[in-house]
Amino acid sequence: MTYEQKLSIKETVPFLREHGTQLTGYFYERMFSHNPELKNIFNMGNQANGKQKNALASTVLAYAEHIETPEVLTEVLKSIGNKHVSLNIAPEQYDIVGYHLLSSIKEVLKEKATSSIIEAWAQAYHELAAIMISIEEKMFQKNAEKKGGWKGWRTFVIANIVEESNTVKSFYLVPKDGGAIAEYLPGQYISVKMFVPSLGHEQPRQYSLSSTYMPSHYRISVKKEKGNAKTPDGLVSNCLHEKKIGDEVLVSVPAGSFFANILPEDSLVLISGGVGLTPLMSILETCKALNNKNKVIWIHGCKNEELHAFKSKVANLEHNNDWLTSFVFYEDGLTENSSVKKGRVDLSVLKDKILINKAKYYICGPEPFIKVHYHSLITFGASKESIFYEEFGPQLLQIKE
Ligand SMILES: Cc1cc2nc3c(=O)[nH]c(=O)nc-3n(C[C@H](O)[C@H](O)[C@H](O)COP(=O)(O)OP(=O)(O)OC[C@H]3O[C@@H](n4cnc5c(N)ncnc54)[C@H](O)[C@@H]3O)c2cc1C
Ligand code: HEM
């Protein structure tokens, strides 16, 4: 980009700060009305709740703010790349997105969209797309070359279904072609795609792999999202809960930038809220499989015992292994003891148990849950490099102290 073009991009920063989501909201509406086939690959729940337009707006703004040094965004772009690769986004689709993004800039900025601003954004998008396509191409290639790896959607058969709580079911998925399946790091996810009759088109969703890697199958554990007076039932989780053994689903190769690379000397503190325990179950089971006897503190919060998924699995593991200590918080709890607490997860009551020299902290749960526990850990003196977190949605959370 030329010096003048970078100046033109910077000129749009105040607008993007203030009206970025108006622009991205307009962009998605425009794109889906011209290219309705894309509804098959976007999560229409995240369109309805506005999370995806927020995620795109914050990325476009960050790119404009760092137009001189786009390399500072590499980690963010890799995380987006993981999601794109998991959804099999193709390079030629960047032209469609680029076309609608530029048209939206023209139509939303109106007279402020001078020809120099439009030219500058055309060049900026072109360069960003080239960086992203190159990151994603490498990921696609690596995944396809892995033993058991593949590109695109692969048909898996549901080989077993296990109820882990009143609302969470585990699905054991085996490839229909009988071939090998790619290894993954504990914490990573797969995308699962299926036809949703109420929408009349397909929908993908991400599900964390909830066990340690097994060469024979993938296990995912899915919460049935019930609606209420104001919100509808979740589309895909309810369809999945109706599936039977022998039914088929489409699956993409494991991906994701939230994972634990467990070293023999690591101590791990695993903090989950609700169904956020799934990637942490994979980390826990991987500790067991590695047999390094890493010290692990397991902290889980949920509403009550009926909704406590993997309760007996974790209890058995703790009973048989000195390296594991678990604590659970029940919001509707009636009794308390040394490992069962009443109320929401409160790390301050466990401070002396979790402040371990060089421990790594993994948090998974809803956004407010992550924020509260991240800040508690920082207040206790944990370094921000030692804290890893994931929320189950577009990655909006960039915690700044
Ligand atoms: C990396 C990652 C890992 C994940 N891992 C897991 C996992 O291991 N287990 C798991 O259960 N989930 C996991 N999820 C979440 C999962 O992908 C789905 O988001 C979840 O199953 C809900 O999907 P759904 O189709 O049932 O609900 P959706 O139809 O997508 O709806 C989601 C929510 O939005 C509400 N909603 C929808 N439309 C509207 C509207 N118009 N107005 C207001 N509210 C609305 C619904 O009521 C519902 O509560 C993960 C997500 C990510 C990104
Ligand atoms: C420069 C161009 C692009 C940018 C800046 C961008 C940005 C993003 C961001 C920030 C997310 C959220 C990531 C997350 O969930 O953590 C995302 C997700 C996604 N992107 Fe892109 N993207 C681009 C191009 C594309 C293209 C070309 C397609 C294909 C049509 C695409 C399809 C998707 C889909 C389907 C998701 C998941 C949406 C969801 O789960 O709700 N993106 N993108």
Identify the notable features of this structure and list them briefly.
single chain; alpha/beta; Globin-like; Elongation Factor Tu (Ef-tu), domain 3; Rossmann fold; six-stranded antiparallel β-sheet; globular; binds flavin-adenine dinucleotide; binds protoporphyrin IX containing FE; EC 1.14.12.17; oxygen transport
Provide an overview of this structure.
The chain is an alpha/beta fold. The chain has 3 domains: 3-145, Globin-like, CATH 1.10.490.10; 154-251, Translation factors (Elongation Factor Tu (Ef-tu), domain 3); 268-390, 3-Layer(aba) Sandwich (Rossmann fold). The chain contains 12 helices and 12 strands. It has helices at 3-11, 13-34, 44-48, 51-65, 74-86, 93-109, 115-145, 235-242, 277-290, 311-320, 351-354, 367-380; strands spanning 154-163, 168-175, 189-196, 201-208, 218-223, 248-251, 268-273, 296-302, 324-330, 340-342, 360-364, 387-390. Helix 9 (277-290) links the parallel strand 7 and strand 8 (296-302). Helix 6 runs antiparallel to helix 7 (115-145). The mean pLDDT is 95. Flavin-adenine dinucleotide binds next to helix 3, strand 4, strand 5 and helix 8. Protoporphyrin IX containing FE (HEM) is lined by residues 38, 41-43, 46, 52, 55-56, 59, 79-80, 83-84, 87, 89, 93-94, 97, 128-129, 132, 394-395.
